[in-house]
Amino acid sequence: MKENQVKNLTQIYNTLLLVSTRGEDTVIMAECLKALQRVIEEGATEAGLSVQEGPAENTVETDVVED
C-alpha cells in the first residue's frame, strides 16, 4: 500500500471518529473503526511507515447532513 493510501484511510478514520452515533449504531461504528484501523496498520507496515497513535491531524472535509 502506498503512503498516500495510508494517509487517505487515516483521514477517513479520523472523520468517522467525529460522527455522533446512538444505540446499535455505536456498536456498528466501533466495529467499522476497528476494521479500518487494522487496514491502516497493515497498509502502513506494508509501506514501511509507522502508525500514529491517536487521532491524526487531518480529517476529510464533508458537508454536514442533518437527519
**SS summary, helix count:** 2
Q: Which descriptor suits the 3D outline?
A: elongated
Proportion in β-strands: under 5%
Compute the CA-based radius of gyration. Answer: 13 Å
Helix residue percentage: 55-70%
The N- and C-terminal alpha carbons lie at a distance of: 36 Å
Q: What structural class is derived from the secondary structure elements?
A: mainly alpha
- Could you give the order of the helices and strands? HH
Largest sheet: none
Structure keywords:
67 residues, mainly alpha
What's a quick, concise take on this entry?
With 67 residues, this protein is mainly alpha-helical.
Structure description:
By secondary structure, this protein is mostly helical. The chain has a domain at about 5-45. Helix content is about 60%, strand content about 0%. The protein has 2 helices and no strands. The relative contact order is 0.24.
